[in-house]
Amino acid sequence: MKIVVYPKDPNPYQDLLYSSIKDRHTTDKITFMSGPTKYQTINLFFLPFQLILYRLFGYDIFHIHWFYTFEIPKLNNRLTQWLMMYYCVSFVYFVKMLGFKLVWTVHETISPTALTDREKSISKYISQFTSIIADAKIIHSSVVINEMLDNGLNTDRTFIVPHGSYKNVYPDSITRKKAREELKIKSHEKMVLFFGLVRPYKGVDDLILAFSKLKLPNLRLVIAGKCIDNELLRRIQSLHNAVEFDFYDEYIADEDVSKYFKASDIVCLPFKSITTSGSTLLALSFGKPIIAPRLGALVDLPSNVGYLYDMQRPGSLETCLRKALKSNKHLSNIGKNSKSYVDTLSWDKIADKTYTVYEDVLK
Asked: What secondary structure does DSSP assign to 36-101, as a single string?
């Protein structure tokens, strides 16, 4: 068995999954496919030639996780969007033409970064096409089945494989006291953290507005993550003039990840749309109570790991924040529940389930 994985994402999810598969199963090779240059757009045109070479060297499974590489951010106009859609569909079809078994992990049914109706239509078409020709689809929750059906995706040969935890993945030598000192958080303050890339669908602007309505003493809101949307960045900056919060608009280095979570009391992730959330599992892996909407795979989370709200109810985010922040001893108990929950998300079990999917498609 030889597996090509595409694309290689900086999120440690893939490294954790495939290192566990290698440890537990006899596979000839698992290779991440990336282009010969450091430029994503240029690399796209080398993909067909790389596919041919991998097939000639005996690779038989192609596992695709995301389609974001088929975007040209600096030329994001109507023409390039449609051209890249056809290129992406042709690429996926070419994978099958070469005789690969195609496995697709449905991290999202439609790209959450798609903002316009045209972008959503393109993302939906790519997902629909891939779902039809894939030999197997992997989802992280049974809830995603309904989401796939709602978006017209084929659900045949769909396997449920949970997302693993991020426990002990990031360096964790800093103490809570030291972390709060470095972030200038006072000992009597409760810190609410948003962590991760700041994108429109993640609801950071909603969090800031909800936080501004609390009017509770000794609170700090910290937003840690690079904002890669200029319009949203301008909105956050305008809100900063009226609402006090700390915004670390930068890519957070691995060695600094634990600092933000250690310093925090609650992690708030107010998504407007989501299928699977690695940042939620990251927060739980640090034993933090979470505030998040009941969306996508988050529906599977046990209720005792935080405050999960119905985003359709007006003011539900503010209500959850207020309830959580007025709690003291209860937050500590929730944090213990978070740690207990992520202990059930063993990468060994997830590796075994993924390997079973590979065996199935090769039969």
From this structure: SSS-HHHHGGGHHHHHHHHHHTT--EEEE---GGG--GGG-SHHHHHHHHHHHHHHHHHHHHTTPE
